[in-house]
Amino acid sequence: MNLTLRNDYGCTEAVIDENCGFDKFYGVAGLLADKLQVQFTNKIDDLDTSYWDFNYNGHKLTLHYNIYDGVSILPVRLRRAAAKDNEAIKELAGVLEDHLK
């Protein structure tokens, strides 16, 4: 699997899968929790969208799911994200890519 990095929201976003269901979202959440010992600090769930915040190496990030956009990870602060938060997304994307093969 190849993760895609994009900047549609004014920050770096790691797109994990653009065409998937909630099962993929929960699979990535489980991977983050089990392999990277991530703890989700805030979970917002709606009928077709979920935003689960977590800390990764001191950076506040969000695991996002939407039925139209799929699963991605982006900084909590979006356009106001620090350059270091965007770099953390790139780093995490590389780590996830190794685990999602």
Quick structural overview:
The chain has two helices and six strands. The longest helix has 17 residues, at 83-99.
Poorly predicted parts: none
- Determine Rg (CA atoms, Å): 12 Å
Distance between the termini: 6 Å
Mean pLDDT: 91
Helical amount among residues, as a percent range?
25-40%
CATH architecture annotation? 2-Layer Sandwich
Largest β-sheet summary? 6 strands, antiparallel
What is the CATH third-level topology name? Answer: Double Stranded RNA Binding Domain
Total separate domains:
1
The CATH homologous superfamily name equals Bacterial toxin RNase RnlA/LsoA, N repeated domain
Order of helices and strands: EEHEEEEH
- Give the CATH class: Alpha Beta
Taken from the alpha-carbon principal axes, the silhouette is: globular
Proportion of beta-strand residues: 35-45%
Summing up helix and strand content along with how strands pair, one would put the structural category as alpha+beta
Q: Report strand order across the widest sheet.
A: 1-2-6-5-4-3
What does this structure look like?
The protein is α+β, with helices and mostly antiparallel strands and 101 residues long. The chain has a single domain (4-99), classed as Bacterial toxin RNase RnlA/LsoA, N repeated domain (Double Stranded RNA Binding Domain, 2-Layer Sandwich). Helix content is 32%, strand content 36%. It has 2 helices and 6 strands. The protein has helices spanning 22-36, 83-99, and strands spanning 4-6, 13-17, 40-45, 49-56, 59-66, 70-75. The chain has a 6-stranded antiparallel β-sheet with strand order 1-2-6-5-4-3, covered by helices on one side. A hairpin with a 6-residue loop joins strand 1 (4-6) and strand 2 (13-17). It starts with a strand and ends with a helix.
